[in-house]
Amino acid sequence: MKKVFVWALGLLCALFADNFVDPNPQIRVDQTLPIPREPLPVIEDIEAQPAQAGDPVISVIKQEFWVQMGAFSNVESAKSIETRLKARGLNARLFASNDLNRVAVGPYASRSQAERSLESLKAIEAEAFLTTPEHLQR
Questions:
Q1: pLDDT in tens, 95-138
Q2: φ, ψ for residue 27 (rounded to 5)?
Q3: Range list of H helices, 16-136
Q4: pLDDT tens digit string along 44-93?
């Protein structure tokens, strides 16, 4: 019974299909969009204009990552670690803030680069971890 009903419904749709097609469609398939006569400007062709008061501000946040190797209350201990790391050819830096002196290696442009370096740096200092400049300067 179900097959007969589906067959009959298909037959009715085929017979009356012309009644369901819009005879005056808004967009025809054979129509094309107009092509602009002049090429669009390339970014290098646009002259930079100085910012005016009230212009919207667009900023690019550059995220960088560091591997913190240690934190010391004694600045001499921190400088000693920094010197040892630099002797190994690493870009070590001392971040002094409040009563803490943090020693970190970096910066790395991406998290994945820092994580790869972290694995080898843990051989030097097991407690090393990934961090950002905001944390180092607290």
A1: 998 889 999 999 998 999 999 999 999 998 889 999 988 888 77
A2: -125, 130
A3: 17-20, 75-87, 111-121, 133-136
A4: 555 666 777 777 766 556 679 999 999 999 999 999 999 999 999 999 99
Give strand pairing partners of 71.
102
Give the three-class secondary structure for 117. helix
* Rounded Cα–Cα distance for residues 4 and 10 (Å): 10
What whole-number distance in Å separates Cα of residue 66 and Cα of residue 51?
Answer: 34
Dihedral angle of Cα 31, 32, 33, 38, to the nearest 10 degrees: -140
Sign, CA torsion 39/43/49/54: positive
pTM of the model: 0.55
The domain ranges of the chain are: 65-136
Superfamily of domain covering 65-136: Sporulation related repeat (3.30.70.1070)
**Cα four-point dihedral sign 80, 81, 85, 86:** negative
Element (H, E) at 8: helix 2-15
